[in-house]
User: Fold these one by one.
Assistant:
Number 1:
Amino acid sequence: MKTKVVMLSEKTIDENIINEAGSIIKHGGLVAFPTETVYGLGANALDVDAVTKIFVAKGRPQDNPLIIHVADYDIEPYVKDVPLVAKEIMKRFWPGPITIILEKTDLVPGVTSANLPTVGVRMPLNNIARSLIRAAGVPIAAPSANISGRPSPTDMKSCVDDLNGKVDFILGGENSIFGVESTIVDCTVSPVCILRPGAITLEMLKDVDNDIYIDPAVLSKPTGDFKPKAPGMKYRHYAPKAPVKIIDGDINKVVAKINEMVLNYIEQGKKVGIIATDETKESYDKGTVASLGARSHIDDISKNLFRVLRSFDNLDIDIILCEAFEEIGVGTAIMNRLKKSAGFDILKI
Ligand code: TXA
Ligand code: MG
C-alpha cells in the first residue's frame, strides 16, 4: 500500500488536507494523526472492517480494546449512562489527555471494544485531531500509532518508521506535548479507578473525588494468572530493540552503580545505552548517553520518554540502563511506562 505523508501545523491547519484525510476515515481507511499524548492510528470506530484493519496494521491482539475519539461532549449515542463524576471529569479535563470508560451502546461494534460491554472515550486537545474527527463525521477509534509492543510515537518520523506502507495516510504535526498516553479512568465502578496513569494525575483527579485511586495492578509486576481490567496492561509494551534495566535509589548511588555496570558490560564486549537526566548526564563518561531532560521539569521527561527509548534502536545498543523517577504526579505515568519497557527488570539499591 502507498502511504501518503503530509506535515501540518496545529496553528495553520490546511482544511483541504483535513477533509481528504477525514474522507478516508469515513470510507473505511486508516489515518495516523497527531494528538497531545501520542500519535494515534485512526479508523471509523463504527465500521467493523475499518477497525479490523487497525489490528492488522499494528499486529495488535484482538482482545485489546480500542478507545474512541470524539470532537464534542455529546457522547450519548455511544455510551449508556454518564455518571456525575464522569461528567465532572469531562467538564474539567476535556478536551485533554484523559479517557473515560463507560458502558457502551450497540452502536459501538464488539471489534472496537474487544467484546467488552464498556468503551473508552476521549476528546483530544490537539487541533489537528479534533478537526480530523469533525471532517470524518464519525468517532475515530485510535490506538497509539506504533507496531504493537514498540514505544508509542510522539513525532511524525516514528509513525512513518512503524507504519509506512501499512496505512493510507499519515498526518504529521507538532511533537506530542505530553508524550505519554492518556490517563484511563474506569467510571463504571464506584469509586472511580485509574487503569492507566497519565498527564491527568491522581492528585488532580482526587480534586474531583477524593476516593479515586490507582488500580494496584498498574504499579506492580503482573503475575501469571493476572486478569487486568485494561486488557492492554498484560502485554509487553514500550520496548525498544535492546533490553532495558531500571536502577532505582538515591541518585548519587544510582549514577555510581550505572557507571560500574557500564564498565562490566563493556568488558563483555557489549554496547551500552544510558538514559540519564540533565542533572546527571555529565557524570557518565562511557556508554551512549541520552538525557530525558531536567528532573526539575518532570513534564519534559514524559514528553521525551518514548523518543529517547526509540533513539537507541539504530545504534546497535545491546543493553539500556535507565535512572528511575519518583512515583508522584506525572512521575507515576513515567515509571509505569518505564517498568513495562523494562519488563519489570528493576534493580533497587
Ligand atoms: O492517549 C491515548 O489514549 C492514545 C491516543 C492515540 O489517544 N491512545 C492509546 O490507545 O493509547 P491504546 O490502544 O494504545 O491504549 C488503550 C488502552 C489499552 O491498554 C486498552 O486495553 C485500554 O486502553 N482500554 C481500551 N478500552 C478499554 C475498556 N473498555 N476497558 C478497559 N480498558 C480499556
Ligand atoms: Mg498503545
Note: DSSP finds ten helices and 16 strands in the chain.
Number 2:
Amino acid sequence: MKLEAVELIRLNVPLKSAFRTSFSSVNMHEVVWVHAVTDEGEGWAECGANDRPDYSSEYHTGAMAVLREFILPDLFKLGNDLSAEAVAPTLHWIKQHRMAKAAIETALLDAQLRASKTSFAEYFGATRDKVPAGVSVGIMDSLPELMSFVEGYLNEGYVRIKLKIEPGWDYEPVKLVRDTFGPDLLLQVDANTAYTRDDFDLLKRLDEFNLLLIEQPIFEEDLLGHAKLADYIETPVCLDETIISADIARDAIELGAAEIINIKPSRVGGYIESVKIHDISVANNIPVWCGGMLETGIGRAANLALAAMPGFTLPGDTSASSRYFETDLTEPFVLVDGHISVPTGPGIGVDPIPEIIERFAVSREWIKRPN
Ligand code: SMG
Ligand code: MG
C-alpha cells in the first residue's frame, strides 16, 4: 500500500448535554479526523485527543502539527512498503504523540482492511457480534440532576453506570445511586487523577458500595501510589491515563497497581498496541474493558470491534450515538437490550455521511505526497 494524501478534518460537534469531569466541562465537542487516501483505497479514523491538553499532554492542534511535520513525511517516504503494521516501527523515533500516531495507523488499517474485505473485528480475532454497553455519567450541579440522568440511562437499558467523581463529589452521589438503584446495579467510578496519596482514607470509604472498580484515582505517573492504594482498599483499582503502552501495562500488573485495565486505543498509540495489552492482561487474569473519548461513529465503530475480543469481560464506555449527539456523523449506533452491534463490514464498517461532515466541519486540510 502507498500513501497518496491525507486530509485532516476538524469538526465541532455539539453534545446533547455538558459532559463534566474532574478536569473539564465540554458542551461543544471538538473532533479531529484523519482521512487517508492510498493507492488501494481510503480509510478513516478519529484522533482521541481533546482540544486542550487536559486528559493527556496531547491536543488537536499539536496532533495535527506532528502529523504534518514529522509523521506523514516519514510515511510518504515508505512508498510501497507502507502497511498499518509498519506505522509504529517507522514512527518509533518520535517520542510520545500516541494519539496522533494512533489516528494515522487506524486510518491506514481501515484502508488496508477495506481493500482485503476484512472487518476490524475479524482482524482482532473478536469473538462476539455485540457488546454490552455501559455509560459514563458526568459530574452534575446537583444530586437530583444526577439521579434523573442515571434513571434515564437505566431505563434505556445501559447495563453499567460509571460516575465521574472528584473531591466534594464522591461519597454522597455514589451512596445515593447505590441506595436508590440497589445492590445489583453494576456501578463504578472514575476520578481522572483528581485525588492524591493523602486521600486514601476517603477513597476507602467507597468500599462500602461494592463498586466494580475505581478508575485512575491519583496522578497518572504514580504507579507505586496506585499499588499502595490497591493494597489499602477493597475496591479494585483500574488504570486509564497511566496505561500508555503494553510495557507500562505489564509493569503496572506486576507491581499490583492495575487490578483492571481500561483500554483506549488512542491513548496507547493504536489498535495493534491495544491487542498487545489485551493479550498481556488475559495472560495475567486482569479484566479489561474499552474506554471512550466521546467518539463519533468513526471512532466508536473501531472501539466496538476491539471490545468484542474475548478478554473484554466488563462493559465498556462504548455507549450508543444518542448518548452523546442529536446527529452522529455515521449511521448511528443504537442500544438494543443493553448491547451494541459490532460492525461487520470491511474496515471499521461504517462511512462518514458527507452532508453531516459539511455541517460540522470547521476546517479541512489536504497534505499530499511530495512528487
Ligand atoms: O466516550 O463515553 C465516553 C466518555 C467516557 O468517561 C469517559 N471518558 O477518563 O474515561 C475517561 C473519560 C475521558 C473523557 S475526555 C473527553
Ligand atoms: Mg477514565
Note: The pocket of magnesium ion (ligand 2) is lined by residues 190, 192, 215-216, 240, 262, 291 (CB under 6 Å).
Number 3:
Amino acid sequence: MAEEKIKKVVKPVKSPKVADPAAASIDEATQQMILRAQDLGIDTVFDRAVTMKPCNIGMQGTCCKNCAMGPCRLPLPKDGIEGEDTRKGLCGATANTIAARNFARMVASGTSAHSDHGRSVAEVFLSVARKETHDYKIKDPGKLLSIAPHFGVATTVEVDGEQVDRELDEIALEVAEKALSEWGKPEGELAYLKRAPQPLYEKWKKMGVLPRNIDREVVEIMHRTHMGVDQDYKNIVKQCTRTSLADGWGGAMMATDLQDVMFGSPSPLQSEANLGIMKKDHVNIIIHGHEPILSEMVVAAAQSRDMIDYAKTKGAKGIQLGGICCTGNEILQRHGVPPAGTFLQQELAIITGACDAMVVDVQCVFQNLANVAKCFHTKLITTHPIAKMEQDNVIHIEFDEHHAMEDAKRIVKMAIDNFENRGAEVIIPRHKSVQIAGFGVESIRYHLGGTFRGDYYTLNDNIINGRIRGIAGVVGCNNARTQHNNEHITIIKELIKNDVIVLTTGCSAIACGMHGLLTPETAGVFCGPGLAEVCETVGIPPVLHLGSCVDNSRILLAATEVVKAGGLGKDICDLPAAGSAPEWMSEKAIAIGQYFVSSGVYTVFGYHMPLDGAPVFKDYLYNEMENIYGGKWDCEADPVKHAQKMIAHIDKKRKELGIDRARERVLMDMADRQKLESN
Ligand code: BF8
C-alpha cells in the first residue's frame, strides 16, 4: 500500500515539450538557434507554440467578450447547422454579428497601428517644415513635389503673370499641415482617395465608404462594435471597408510618402539577409519595430567616425547593424542595412550571444525578449512613449525628434560599452543570402517602364503578350502555428514558376531575401520561361522587395500605374493580379486584406481565418464582396493550392480581358513554332 502511494507521488519528471527545429522552420539558421536555446534551457516562441494550443472557439471567431455578461461562446456544432441557426449570446447577438464585430475590431486595431505610425511621421515632418529640428531634412524634394498636388498644395505661384516655382519650405509646411489634418479634419474626405483609378473611387463613393478622416473611422468601429449597436454583419463590413481604406489609401500611404520625402525614396541596392549578418568581432546592434524615425538616426550615428573609432577603442572591429521586422525593412530599403531575420527570429538574434543592444520601437515586439535578454549581456532598449515593458532589465530611452541624434548616439554608445560584457559563448549561424532590395513605384517605372510610350509600358506589354502571366502581391507576417517561412517560399516559387511576377513586403520580403529569391539570378533557376526572359532582359529579380507593411501602399499605387498605362482594363479589379498573406498573424494583416479586397483584389490568406463559426458571414467576405468591390477574401493553408488559386484567378482575369490566347502563343517551344510555320 505504502509502496503504491510512493509510486503515485514520485512520478518521473517529464522533460518539457519543446519544438522540433526541422518542423518549426525551413531555415537552417533558425533551426540551429532553436536548438541552442533549448540546450540553454531558454524557451522561444517555437517551443511555446508546442505547449500552448490556441482556443478553439476564438479560432472560429465566435467568442464575444464585448460586455460583462459574457464571454459568450458560440462554437459551430460538429455536424454543422441544418435549418435555422438558433445560436445566440445573452443579448441575442448571432454568430454572424459576433464574428463580424471581432473582425471589425481587428481592422480597427490594424488601421490604428499603421496610421498612428503615419501620424508620428507626419508630426516629425511638421517639425522639419517648421525648422524645429535639424537632425532631419528633406532628402527627396522631387517626392515632395509629386505628393503636394494630392493635398491640394500648389507647387508653383504666379509672379508678374508668370508661373514660377514656389519655395520648397513653403510647400513643405503646407503639405505637413494638410497631411496632419487628415487624421482629424471635421469634414470632407481623405485627400489621397482620388489617387485610385476613377472607377474605383466612384464605386467607393456610391457605396458610401469614402473615409472622412482616419481617427473617426476607427472610433466609429469601436462604437459600432460596442454591445448593442450595429447588429447587421453587412453594415459592419461596410465600416470595415471605410476604415481599412483610411489605412491603405490614408495613414499607411502617408507614412510611406513622408518617410520617402524625409529619408529618401528607395532605389535598388545590394544587401544580405539572415542571422549570419551578425559579426563576432563587431558591436552588433539590432533594430526592431516599425517606425523608422529613430532608427534613421541610429544608422547615421553608427556610421559616424566618432562612434566607429569609439568601438575600436573597446576592441571591436566596427559596428554591425541588423534589422528585424519592418523597421529593418525601412533601413534596408534606404541604407542597405541587412535584416537579421523575420518576426519569428527576434529572440534568436539575442540567443547568438552577440547582440550587444536590441533597440525596439513599436509593433510586433515580443515581451519575451526581456526574458531572453536577461540570460545574456544584451541591452534591450525601448524607445517609444507608447511601448514600454514591465520587466526591470529593460532600459527606456525615449526618443524626441528635437534631439534625435543625441538619443541615437547615446544608444549606440551604450551598445559599444556593452561589447566587452559578452559572457556566454557566441554562436552566430553562418547562414545569410545576398539580396537586391529597394524597389518602389518609381524604380519599377524605371526598370519596367517605356521610354517613349508612357509609364509601366514594358510591364503591361509583357502581361498582354503573355510572357508575364500576372502580378501577385505576397506580403505579411510569420506565424508560429505554421512552419516558419515555408508557406511564403513555397507559394512564391509556385507563382514565379508559372510566370507570375511577385511584389513583396514585410516579413514575407525578409523571408524571400533569406532564401535567395531576391536576386536577378533567381529568374534563371525558378521562373517560367516568360518571366525569366523579361527579368533577364531588364536585369531585375522576379520577386521585388517593396519595403515594409505600410509600404503595401506602394503595391496599391503600382497597381494603379498598371491600370493607367492601359490595355489591362479600367480598374484594379480588372487586372490579372492577386494578393496573399501566407503566414499572417497580425491585426494589421486583416486591415491590409480588407483594403486590398475593397480595392478590387482577390486576396488569399494562409493558415486559417477566424470565421468558421459564422459560415454566413464568412460567405459574405469570400463571395459577396466581389459583387460590390470586385475583390474578395479567401483562405487556403496548403501553399501549393494557395498559389494555384491565385493563378486560377489571374487566368480568369486574362480571359475576361481577352488576352488568354496570347500566353499560349508565347509558351510554344521552338518545335511547335516550326510546326506552325511549315503548315
Ligand atoms: O508590419 S509582416 S510580423 S513585422 S505585422 Fe509584423 Fe507581420 Fe512582420 Fe511588419 Ni507586418
Note: The two ends are 95 Å apart (CA to CA).
Number 4:
Amino acid sequence: MPKREKSAPFTVLGIETSCDETAASVVRRHADGRGEILSNVVRAQLDLHAAYGGVVPEIAARAHVDLLDAAIKQAMTEAGVGFDALEAVAAAAGPGLIGGLIVGVTTAKAIGLGLGVSFIAVNHLEAHALSAGLTDGLRFPYLLLLVSGGHTQLLIVKEVGDYERLGTTLDDALGEAFDKAAKLLGLPYPGGPEVERRAAKGRATVKLPRPMLGRPEPHFSLAGLKTALRHAALERAPLSEQTIADLCASFQEAVADVVSDRTARAMEIYEARLGPGAQKALVVAGGVAANRRLKVALEKVASAHGFRLVVPPAELCTDNAAMIAWAGAERLARGFTDDLGAPARARWPLDPDAPPALGAGVKA
Ligand code: KG4
Ligand code: ZN
C-alpha cells in the first residue's frame, strides 16, 4: 500500500481501554495540522462496576473483550470510511489497568497488521495532554492540569513527546478523592458528579484542611482531606440530607482552594521556565474538569496570572478514543510509530526524568 506524505491529511482509528470506558474513534488530521473528529464512540461500563463502588479490573477487562469489536464497527460506520482509508491504528498502551490495555493494544496491532498500516502505542496521559490541539487548535507550549480518577498532574506541554512534570499527587488522585468522599457519605459511584450535585444544595460551613497550601513545589496531597471529612461525618452522624450537602460543599471548597493554590504556583514556575514571551494558556483535562465550582476557581486564577483557560468539552475531557486517535495522528505526523513488540504498560510516566516527589506513592 503506498504511503501518503506525512503532511497530507490522514485518518487514524483510535482505541481506548485503559479503565472502564470501551471507546473507539476515527479522527482525521488535515495538512494544516487541524483535527476533525469523524466519529467518537464510548461505551461506559458504569453499571457493571457501580455495585462495587469503584472499577473492578477483571470485570473491566472482560467487558472490553465483549464490547470493543462492536465499538470499532460503530466508529467506522459513523465515520463513513472504510478500513482502507486508515493510515494508522492507535491504542492507549498505558498507564492503566493492564488487562484492559492488553485488549486494546492487541486489537489495534491485529487491525494494523491486517491492513498493513502503522500501529501507534499511545500514552493515555499524552492523549489527555494533546486533546486541546484537537478541540481548540491550541499550539504549544501550554500548562496542563490533568485531574481524573487516576491522575493529578501539573505539566508543561512543550511539544509532542516533550513534557515537564511540575506537580503530582503524593497519595490519592483528585477524582479518586471525590469518589472516596462520596463513598464515605453513602453516595453512589462515580462520586464526583454526585458530590457536585449535593454541594449545590449545601453551605461550606464545615472546617476542613487545605493540604499543601503555599508549598513551593506544586504537588498535591488529598488523603488527609478525605480523613478529615470522615471525622467530620462521624461527628455529625446520623447524617441528614442537609448535613451531607454541607459536607459536600465544604469538601468541594477545600478542593477548589487547594487546586487554585497549586495551579497558581505552577503558573509562576511556567513563566520562570519559559520566559515572558511564551504563550500563557492553562488547559484542564480529565473527568474532574467537568466540575463547575473548580472551573470558576480556575478562571479566577487564570485571569489573575494573565493565562487563557482552555477546557475541552466534557466528552473530550473524560476518557475517550478521539484523544487517542488524535495523539496517534500527532505522533504519526512527526514520524513516530511503534513496532508490534510495543508492550502494554500499567505504569508509564510522561516525564520519566521528573524528580520523585518526596513521600509519593505509586501514582507519581
Ligand atoms: O477522566 P475520567 O473520566 O476517567 C479517569 O479516571 O481516567 O475521570 C473520572 C473521574 C471520577 O473520579 C469522577 O468522580 C470524576 O472524574 N468526576 C468529577 C466530576 N465528574 C467526574 N469530579 C468532580 N466533579 C465532577 N463534576
Ligand atoms: Zn483519563
Note: The radius of gyration is 20 Å.
